[in-house]
Amino acid sequence: MNLNFFDTAAGTDGTSFLMIIVIYAAIFGLLYLFLIRPKSKRQKQDQKMRESLEIGDEITTIGGIMGRVIAIRDDEDAIIIETGSDRVKMKLKRWSISTVDTEKELPAEEKKSKGWFKKNKSEDKNEETK
Fold first, then answer.
1. Are residues 2 and 44 in the same domain?
2. Where residue 22 falls among pLDDT bands split at 50, 70, 90?
3. Which domain holds residue 83?
4. 17, 48, 102, 110: which could join 57 in a potential S-S bond, CB 3.0 to 4.6 Å?
């Protein structure tokens, strides 16, 4: 009888089980990097945008309604906007805001380029003049 055959077969089963675990961990890691993390990052940006609303900001809702914020109701988590030349007023929930169209001055830390290879054109001009 050849007992070494059974020993090597048992060893490969343990190794293949370990490889399956490693492959599943790699797949989960890639899913996290490409699906879960960007979505949660986008949700945080949207929440920050909605919390930083000010009276007078021009907004667009998820439904495509454009208007200017005239009141903010924190107790109801709602805003009141004014639309059109006839000054129709509408009360909306904050979650319905899609974009804030008013351009605001960004803090210096948010002006930095994001990513590995991206650079702002203004940074290139500053480097050339130095």
1. yes
2. very high
3. 58-100
4. 102
